Amino acid sequence: MLRRQVAQLERARGRRDDRADPGAVEELAGVPVHDIAPAAVRAAPTSVFRGGRVANAWAGAETTALPFGHPEVDAATGGLKRGALHDVSPAGAPDMASATGFALACAGLLLRAAGRDSLWLWVRAEMAGREAGEPYGPGLAAFGLDPSRLVAVTAGDTADVLRAAEEGLAARAFAAVLIEPFGDDRRLDLTACRRLSLIADGGRATGILLRTGGVPGPTSAVTRWRISAAPSDGGRHPGNPVFAADLARNRLGPVGGWMMEWRIDEQSFRTPRVRPKTQGVGPLAVPLSGRLAAASGNRPSRPSGSGAVVPFRIG
Amino acid sequence: MVLTAKHRSAVRLAHVDEQAVRLGLQPGLGLADARARVPGLDVRAADPEADAAFLDRLCDWAQRYTPLAGRRIGTSSVDLEFPYPEDFTLVLDIAGCAHLFGGEEALAADMAQRLERQGMTVVIAIASTIGAAHALAAFGRGGRLQAGEERRALAGLPMAALRLDAMTVDALARVGLKRIGDLMDGPRAPLTARFGRTPLIQLDRALGLADEAFSPRLPVAPYCAERRFFEPIARQEDVRAVALSLIGALAERLEAAGEGALRLRLSLWRVDGALAHVEAGLSRPSREATVMQDILCRRLDSLAEDFDAGYGFDCVTVAVTEASRRDAEVLSLAGADTALELTRFVDRVGARIGRGRVRRLKFYASHIPERASRAVPAHVAEEGSFPASDVLPGDPPERPIRLFAQPELVEAMASVPDGPPLRFRWRRVTHEVKRAEGPERIAGEWWRQEAPTRDYFRVEDAEGRRFWMFREGLFQVETTHPRWFVHGLFA
Q1: B156 and chain A in contact, CB less than 8 A
Q2: Min CA distance, A14 vs chain B (Å)?
Q3: Among A105, B171, B332, B369, whose CB has the most other CB atoms within 10 angstroms?
Q4: pLDDT tens figures, B138-191
Q5: Quick one: B456 and B437 in the same domain?
Q6: What does B338-376 look like in DSSP terms, one character per residue?
């Protein structure tokens, strides 16, 4: 019952404040908007609505969208909506790094628009760090984000993740808030998600809910992305990150699936170039494209790669 | 009933109760001897750590009378014969506090009543020196000494009351100096020559002729506000309301002194003698009542599950345990708005889930990957920056976005001596390597410990997942069976 109410409410809201694409909103069958809104307000815990937040949340504060830089995605979504909640999940467990990358790329778009000095927040469950790895400063820098402007919160459980995320979205300090609970937890239900959406709505921060581990639960986000890894076009060595992005839900327009390449130096997505498929590497790796490995006294003098292929089993 | 402790591989009596004393048992007696004398003896093992912890708690409890409450008052005197801490004395400096309780005697009576209600036997002595008060409490009957009466009151007490070690007491007793009075009028030089300076220094301290330092167990809070209740309060809302009003009072005093609070401590004295502390920290000195209230309330909320009011609290204090000059610069900074918001966020979330959990990343100049980036608690982190990536425009990143704290061991098939992996099995999934780049050779830091050289590869599997892997150890130089690890994940 609650779920239906919230779904109706979302559709109603879509009609009210989405000037971008009113046609995409489904027709709401005869339910006046004003009748639905208070019901949903009652459904969500009241503590969210302190200090006049309700008024702000429902006033439809001006929101802008940032272009992804990928023409088809921009056409479908109208860009990455700021002051909203977006949902990013991996298609399968091994794709968690790609999902992280996509979420970070979105944060990159937001940070570029908000200015070089803006702060960003990454709230993650302790288990997420253990299972999928901790944010790595030099790697984030190489990805085009400024790690020194990151505030990283490690929370013990989902309740603390949500608590810190709500504080982060409400604070006016952050341009992007990455929220990474771990595992499918019943506490991350539609109500919790709705709370995040409401706080993000029209605020300064944009929330990105990154569901690294676990089944995607119900969501109230504006867009929901399912990300899987895709081969890069770097030739024989790994190239720029490419994502197979599946837009599974879009409140503002049609859904779809695209290949998206993240251009680090431009901090923008693009359509990956189509290349003839390269075959596997064989026994020889391509030397580093950037800095070369330091010549080491330990390195054998004979040319590398002349050895035989020998399997190693580690028990 | 007696308590026993092990001393030099013999079990001896550590403490005896009144009845045991009447039966002729004394601390220090062997347990076998005691059993022989009193067959039906009730013997329990002493637990010095629990005793010490109990005394610490009692000492904190005594802060309701004065902020200067301490435990260890023994000098260097260690009881060599029986090194069980005999030091069951609490010292309170009540100068300037007694009038709040209606005088020194009223204070002592109040304390005795409260402690006896908790089931303790206490002797309280009030004197103008620590030595005299200790001697009266431990060897006399307690009571109150006026300044100047020490000489007369102490003269009749045994020498051990001066807090001397057992050897010195024995040596003094052997030459006939058994009571403190025997020391007072004798010639000083020969005593010093024979027994060292300690006995006379202790005597002077007890008589107020020499100073004695005393350190309270907890540092004295620079700002403190308290409220007492005739009827204990138990509801959490009441506690919160009291805390808020106390913070209001503190804020005014901070304002007047031009300081800001960095750490706050809310102390709740329960009627039955238990004491609870709630601490919260701020990352910038603050004296706004609303900010301090906010932080403390969040901390209280997060402890709500463990909140045990029992029969209620009869005394509540809020102390600023750490204060510093409020930095005027903070307010004049151009980006102060964001900085202030950040500070607030760090304090609020820190109060809620723990301060150490809100962190900033710091660059550290090391070529060992896991050392190059550190997470530092945000309230102590200073602003710093990471060096710009020196990758050419358009080139893929050289470092992964996520790094495992512990590199994960994988089964890999690779070409020797230093080729990239061709196939590997990580977390029960086999990955076929389609693209690889490397090696990037990173040797261990020789000035730390010997660590094998790592050859890092960036690899991409058939599905397009990108990994940062390394081989540990140089083939046939450092090891014959190099192991492979996944250390990080690329987007």
Answers
A1: no
A2: 31
A3: A105
A4: 777 778 888 778 888 888 888 888 877 777 888 888 888 888 888 887 788 888
A5: yes
A6: HHHHHHHHHHHHHHHH-GGGEEEEEE---SSGGGSEEEE
